[in-house]
Amino acid sequence: MEKNIAGLWNSGRAVVGGWLMLPDAVTAEIMAGQGYDTITIDLQHGLVDYQKALAMLQAMNGSPSIPFARVPWLDPALVMKLLDAGFLGIICPMINNQDEARRLASYVRYPPVGERSYGPARAGFILDPAYGGKANEMIQCLAMIETAEGYRNVEEIVAVEGIDGVYIGPIDLTLALYGNDLPLGLDRQETEMLEAIENILRAAHAAGKKAGIHCGTPEYAGRMVEMGFDLVSLSSDLGLFSTASKSILEAARRLTGGVAGDESQAAQSGSTPY
Q1: CATH number of domain containing 161
Q2: Domain identity same for 190 and 72
Q3: By residue range, what is the domain housing residue 137?
Q4: Is the pLDDT of residue 221 over 50?
Q5: What region does 152 belong to: left with phi over 0, alpha with psi -120 to 50, or beta?
Q6: pLDDT tops 90 at residue 67
Q7: Residue 45 catalytic?
Q8: Which of 29, 45, 156, 253 is catalytic?
């Protein structure tokens, strides 16, 4: 089964992605069966290590969803190991400048373009018998723009050969630019944040690169696609589970007139963990 994100983009439509934070293969299998274009396994803020990520990737193998991994940091060993396992996209957080972007691109590409070590233990069997010769074109490499330095240097970051695009982390970007002056949250409504988001999008497209952003709701994802984003990811398995669980419980409370323990249960429900 060919999994080609470029084909989706060439068709003229935006890519809609799912996001996995829970370290569970069954959850990954279910999410991948819903029809998302991409599924990203989050090794940065998710509760997932390499072995769990591998099991989750295997569980998604029968799905057409394109597997991405968000790595915890700019770590060549883990980037290369995840690609050897069969991930087709890498999202790397906290890219601040052109040097870091060049390093990221080099970890993702085989020589002479980059310095990725050859050893596609699983990818060579699962993806393509000629993987070695095709990998540099198959893999998507996205640099996250979510720091004040990265925002200032976005034009030089997207100019790096081997960086296919950028991915915005709205919460970290808001903290980096405005600290505690603005509330935490994914779907930014403030004029100053929308301007920053659009500036990043404009810089990426001016360089011929793609732009993605994490969204909390389908409505905001639609707004970002209208703005011009190529990739929108929706919430996460953890966020969806929390929201749905809270919603169904609140409905049950209303329909049953409430039961003993309402207040203690509500106090423990918390908010979406983003």
Answers
A1: 3.20.20.60
A2: yes
A3: 5-235
A4: yes
A5: alpha
A6: yes
A7: yes
A8: 45
